[in-house]
Amino acid sequence: MSSMTTNIVSGAAPTPELGQLVEVRRRQWIVNDVLASALAAARREGVQAFSQHLVTATSIDEDALGEEIQVVWELEPGARILEKAGLPKIGEFDEPGRVDAFLDAVRWGAATNADVQALQAPFRSGIAIEDYQLDPLVRGLQMPRVNLLIADDVGLGKTIEAGLVAQELLLRHRARTILIVCPASLQLKWQAEMQEKFGLEFRVVDTSYLKELRRSRGIHANPWSSFPRLITSMDWLKSEIPLRFMRDAIPPQPSYPRTFDLLIVDEAHNVAPSGTGNYALDSLRTQAIRTIAPHFEHRLFLTATPHNGFQESFTSLLELLDDQRFARGVQPDQERLARVMVRRLKTDITDANGNRVFPERRLEALEVDYSDEERGIHASLVEYTELRQAANREGGGNHATEFVLKLLKKRLFSSPAAFASTLDEHRKTLAGRKKRADGSALDQRILRRLIQQTEEEYADDQRYEEAQEEAVSAATAALANLSPRERELLEQMAHWAERAKARPDSKAKAILAWLKQHAKPAGSWSNERVIIFTEYRATQKWLIDLLTAEGLGGGDRLMTIYGGMDKDAREAVKAAFQADPNVSPVRILVATDAASEGIDLQNHCRYMIHAEIPWNPNVLEQRNGRIDRHGQKAKEVLIWHPVGAGYRRKQLGADVTAGSLEGDLEFLMVAARKVEAIRTDLGKVGPVIASQVEQAMLGKRKQLDTARAERDAQASARELPIERKLRERIARLRAQLVETREVFHLSCSTAHRAARDA
After folding, report:
1. For residue 491, what pLDDT band results from cuts at 50, 70 and 90?
2. Which member of 580, 596, 658, 674 lies 3.0 to 4.6 Å from 667 by CB, making a disulfide possible if both were Cys?
3. Is residue 254's pLDDT more than 60?
C-alpha cells in the first residue's frame, strides 16, 4: 500500500499558479485561487506527505464565459496547465521584412474607439463589399450608441450591412454579446451568413436548444446567457418560457452598463404595432421587443417597409429603436430621422459611370389555354361561394365562411392536388359533424385564433398545412347547413379534383412547355436555370411528379426546397443551385413560400415562374427578391405569372374585371403589376391590394382601385428620407475605405507576408 501511495505522490501533476491558463474538462479556464491542504492520512502511514490543492477558475470559452469551477487539482482527470504566452527570448535581430510584418499585424489589431475613420470590418469579412454598403458602418462608428434603422430596398444586402456593423463593434470591443431576432424562416440564413461571411459563430435559440442546454448544464441554465452570440425567432421570443428566462437575465430597470450589447431585429416591420387609425395596439411581438430593447446598448432594425401608412405604428417602431430621439405618437423630426435611417432604392444605385448596378425586372404573362371543364369548376366554386355567403349571412358565421371560401379559391388557383386536400377536409367535417357549432363567444375566439395562426410565418411547411387543416375543420363546423344545390356543387368539384390531381392541368402543361423551350430546348439542357415558386407543399409534390414523368427530373436536374427539410440538405440544394451550371447539373428548382425568405438564388438564375400569383404583395416581392438582388449578374430578370389565353391582346386597365376564371387571373396580374410599380410604397399600399384581392375572389369587387392608398402613401413617403444623391456620398465612402487601406498597409502582399512570418 505504501509503495502504491508513493508512486501516486511522485506522479502528481504540477500545481497551477494564479493567473495561469489551464484546461479542465475539455474547457479553458483562468486560475483565480489556489488553496493547499496537507493529507493527514498519508502522514499517519509514514509516507512523505503531499498537498492537494483546491483550484478556483473562471471559464474563457465562449459557451461558458464567466462561469466558475472548483476542482481538487490532483484528483481531476485530464487537468493540465497550458503553456503561458510570453515574449520571445531576445537573440539576434530580425530581418527588416519580418519586423514590418510584425508592425503590420500590430496595426491591424489596433482599432480604437477614438478613431472613427479607420474601417476594420470590410477587411476582416470574406466577401466583396459594394461601396454603398459601407454607409451604415460609417454612420454607426460616429454614434456613441449605435441606433440605426436600415431601410434599404429589398435585395440591397441589409444582412451584409448589419454584419459589418456587428463585426466592427466586436473588433473595437464596443460589443461582445449579440442577439439577432428574425422570422423563423431566416434563422438558418443568418447563422450561415454570419459564419461564412464574417467568421462569427452564432447559435440558434429555440425549444430544441433549450432542451439540450438543460440536459448539459442543468434545469436552471439560462439560454440568453449561454453564449455571447445568439439568434432567435420573434415568434419564439414572444412566448411565455423564453420571456421568463429573459426577465431572469435582465434587471427590473435598465441600468448602465447594459446587460447586453447589440440587438439586431430583421424584418422589423413585423414588431411594429399594427395600426388602423390614430391608435396602434401592441402585438405580442411588439411587447417582447419593448421588454428587451432597453437592456441593449446598441440596436439595428432592418426592414424594406418601415412605414405601414399609420403614423402611430411608425413612431412606435422608432421609439423601440431609440426612445431618446423619438416618442410614440409624436411627429418625428426629419433631421433626427435622417441620422438614424439609412434608406436607398435599387433604382438609385449606380456605378462610377452612372450605369445601374441592379438589373431591370420584367414581368411576363404565362398564357394558359384553360379547358371548358376547368372553367366550369371555377364557375361551380363561384356559385358555391355565393350560396355559402348568402346562407351564412342569415345564420351568422361570416368570418368562418370567408376563410374557407378564400382558401378553396387560393388552392384551386395553385393546383388540383392542393384544392383536393382542402376540399376533402371541408367535406369530411361537414359529413362528420352531428350539429352546427353554437357560435358562442369562446368558440369564436378559438376560431379566430386558429385562422390567425394560418396567417403566421412558418418555417415548416408541414406545420403550415396542419394549421390550415385545423382551421378549415373548425371554420366548417361553424357554417350553416348545406342546401341540396350546395351538396351537388361540392360533389361535382370533389369528383373533378380527384381525377385532375392525377394528371397535368392546363397550367401545368403551359409550365412544361415553357421549360422545354427555355431549360431544355431541342431536347438538350441549356445553362439557363429557373425557379418555380408555389405557396403549398401539395402543389410542389404534384409538380415534381409531373416534371419527372416528362423527363425533366433525371440526373440531379430537378431539385426542391421547402420549409422543414433537413438543414444540411437545404444547404446542399442552395449550394448546387448557386454553383456554376458547368459544374452543377441542377436546372430547375421548385420551392415553397417557406423558402422565399432568407435564401439567395441569384448567382446563375434570371428566370422565375409563379405557379400561382400570391394574394399578399409582400410574399410576391419576397419571391421576386430571391433573384432580383445584390449579386445578380444578368442585366435583366424575367418573371412569369399565369394568366388566361389572349392576355397580351387585351387592353389592361379599368376594363379588367374579376368573376370568371380568366377575369380573376387578370385581376391578380393587374395586382402583380401594381406591386411592381409601387414597390417602395408597399408598406401602405400592400395591405390595400391584399384586401381588394380577397374581396374580388369572394365576388365582392370587380376592379382594383388603389388610388386613395397611393395618395396616402405619398404623404407617408415624405416622412421617409430617401437618399437620392448617392454618387457623392458613395465616393466619400470609397475614399475612406482607400485611406484605411493605405494607413494600415492592407494589401494581399502584406497579409501574405504577415501570415508567412508569423
Report:
1. very high
2. 658
3. yes
Average pLDDT over residues 18-37: 88
Q: Is residue 743 over pLDDT 90?
A: no
Domain covering 2-81: architecture: Roll (2.30)
Give dist(CA 392, CA 399) in Å, integer: 9
C-alpha cell recorded at residue 536? 403549398
**Cα–Cα distance measured from residue 313 to residue 326, given in angstroms and rounded to the nearest whole number:** 12
- Give the chain's length: 758
Whole-angstrom Cα distance, residue 483 to residue 430?
12
Cα gap 624→596, rounded to integer Å: 8
Q: Give the pLDDT of residue 47.
A: 47
> How do strand 280-281 and strand 274-275 relate by DSSP bridges?
antiparallel
Q: How would you classify the pairing of strands 636-644 and 360-368?
A: parallel
List pLDDT tens digits, range 186-195.
888 899 889 9
pLDDT tens-digit profile of 580-620? 999 999 999 999 987 666 678 889 999 999 999 999 887 88
Instruction: Give the pTM.
Output: 0.76
Contacts 24+ apart (CB under 8 A), 402-406: 402/694, 402/698, 403/451, 403/471, 403/472, 403/475, 404/472, 404/475, 404/476, 404/479, 405/698, 406/694, 406/697, 406/698
Residue 640's beta-bridge partner residues?
A: 364, 609
Give me the sheet containing 80-81, strands edge to edge: 68-72, 51-59, 27-38, 21-24, 80-81
- DSSP of 591-651: EEGGGSSS----TT--EEEESS--SSHHHHHHHHTTTSSTT--SSEEEEEEEEETTGGGS-
Say whether domain 360-366+503-717 belongs to CATH 3.90.79.10. no
pLDDT digits (tens, 9 = 90+) for 86-97: 555 666 777 777
Distance CA 228, CA 377 (A): 57
d(CA 479, CA 444) in angstroms, rounded, equals: 12
Closest C-alpha among 58, 25, 29, 63 to residue 209: 63
pLDDT one-digit tens code per residue, 134-187: 889 888 888 889 999 998 888 788 999 999 999 999 988 899 999 999 988 788
* pLDDT, tens digit (0-9, with 9 covering 90-100), for 415-432: 999 999 999 999 999 887
When the pLDDT of each residue in the chain is averaged and rounded to a whole number, the result is 83
Cell of 490: 361540392
How far apart CA 411 and CA 540 sit, in angstroms, is: 12
Beta pairing partners, 30: 21, 58
Domains 2-81 and 360-366+503-717 equal at CATH topology level? no
Confidence of residue 17 (pLDDT cuts 50, 70, 90): confident
What CA–CA distance (Å, rounded) separates 286 from 527? 46
Task: Quote the CA–CA distance of 713 and 706 in Å, as a whole number.
Answer: 10
The CATH label, of 3.40.50.10810, 3.10.180.10, 3.40.640.10, 3.30.420.140, for the domain at 101-348 is 3.40.50.10810
| Structure confidence at residue 439 (pLDDT) | 59
Residue 504 burial (CB count, 10 A)? 20
For the chain, give every domain's residue range: 2-81, 101-348, 360-366+503-717, 372-500
